[in-house]
Amino acid sequence: MEDLKRQTGKNRLEGGKSRMAANKLTKGQMFFLLLQSQVGIGILSLPYDVFQKAESDGWISIIAAGCWIQVMLLVYVGLYIKVKKDHFHALLEEVLGKSLGYLTAILYVLYFLSVAVLILTLFNEIIDIWVLPRTPNWIIGIIMVFLGYYLGKESVQILARFNVLVTPILFIMFLLITYALKDAQILYLLPIGEAGVKNILLGSREALLAMLGFEILLVILPLTDANNKKKLKYVSLSNIVLTLSYCYLSIINFMFYSPEELKIVPQPLLYILKSFSFQIIERTDLLFLTIWVVTVFTSFVNYYFLAVSAARPLVKSSGIQRKLPLIFAILILTVNFFTNENNVYLVDKVSKVITNSSYAFVIVIPLILLFAAYIKNILRKEKIHEESM
């Protein structure tokens, strides 16, 4: 009888562990969630943006940005090593205290929402120029937000599976742009390093903005079923893949356009593809944009999910928690409607405010959290040592 009870208890424990594992992300899912969150709007204008600062050395700026991101990935993983919590809100309260942690969590929710709005606004802008100039932006916005709501209200596992499912289309995007190598002029890349260290670093700032999305790790790291060493390995691998991919795309652009041309082409990738045609494909740029729409949608829905996920612990009412996805969807649509009413100046101003504020949420606050956690650990150890004496 005693053996039976012991066995029953063991089975329950194992069952509990298996259910916890089922509610966790795999290492691969974390990899693809991170990758898809970073690929999106910025890919179209990245070569142009870095060229304005570092000219043909812009590819070096992208590598430098990848190095900065790697440092922040170490900070994120280190933060959860120092503070062993199972979600981001609990980490904030542990390090900053209940009141300040609650306030910081609200700020992160607003940040995630604002980035989702920005992605949707810039997406509408590109679609309006290149694909559907006569279609009202609010119609495109409604479709995007409806699909985002449908997926974003689900669990992180379902979101991750979708990100994994659509990842192969990224290879088609890179395959299409590779065709431009037939007209490439490698001499346009020379001399390497001519822009100087200062301009290359300024270019890395532009590249970093195009590669944002890695802050998703603040939410999904504790939701991943792996030890910290493996987590760091997979997020680093994702960063390497993204950095090299962006570097590759930029080099193709730098070899295709002359320096004078690249100064005046805001979406160089699309103009390259527009110049190509095949027997069965007349507008290659539209084929590329069709694929690109899916990558933008994954970025949008990932940020939408982050906002909902970060807001749930802040609300005590279970009824409101269930309605949060709908509330945020309506909020995003409303803000997007007012920023899209042919007000280019407003869109540009909002874009600058959000991108500049991203440094605080992506870099400054995580560094402060890590430093505060480190200090708290030291003080805790000193207190334990004093009590034991």
TrEMBL record:
<feature type="transmembrane region" description="Helical">
    <location>
        <begin position="135"/>
        <end position="152"/>
    </location>
</feature>
<feature type="transmembrane region" description="Helical">
    <location>
        <begin position="102"/>
        <end position="123"/>
    </location>
</feature>
<feature type="transmembrane region" description="Helical">
    <location>
        <begin position="207"/>
        <end position="224"/>
    </location>
</feature>
<keyword id="KW-0813">Transport</keyword>
<feature type="transmembrane region" description="Helical">
    <location>
        <begin position="323"/>
        <end position="339"/>
    </location>
</feature>
<keyword id="KW-0812">Transmembrane</keyword>
<keyword id="KW-0472">Membrane</keyword>
<keyword id="KW-1133">Transmembrane helix</keyword>
<feature type="transmembrane region" description="Helical">
    <location>
        <begin position="164"/>
        <end position="181"/>
    </location>
</feature>
<dbReference type="Pfam" id="PF03845">
    <property type="entry name" value="Spore_permease"/>
</dbReference>
<dbReference type="GO" id="GO:0016020">
    <property type="term" value="C:membrane"/>
</dbReference>
<keyword id="KW-0309">Germination</keyword>
<feature type="transmembrane region" description="Helical">
    <location>
        <begin position="236"/>
        <end position="257"/>
    </location>
</feature>
<dbReference type="InterPro" id="IPR004761">
    <property type="entry name" value="Spore_GerAB"/>
</dbReference>
<protein>
    <submittedName>
        <fullName>GerAB/ArcD/ProY family transporter</fullName>
    </submittedName>
</protein>
<dbReference type="GO" id="GO:0009847">
    <property type="term" value="P:spore germination"/>
</dbReference>
<feature type="transmembrane region" description="Helical">
    <location>
        <begin position="359"/>
        <end position="379"/>
    </location>
</feature>
<comment type="similarity">
    <text>Belongs to the amino acid-polyamine-organocation (APC) superfamily. Spore germination protein (SGP) (TC 2.A.3.9) family.</text>
</comment>
<feature type="transmembrane region" description="Helical">
    <location>
        <begin position="286"/>
        <end position="311"/>
    </location>
</feature>
<feature type="transmembrane region" description="Helical">
    <location>
        <begin position="60"/>
        <end position="81"/>
    </location>
</feature>
<feature type="transmembrane region" description="Helical">
    <location>
        <begin position="30"/>
        <end position="48"/>
    </location>
</feature>
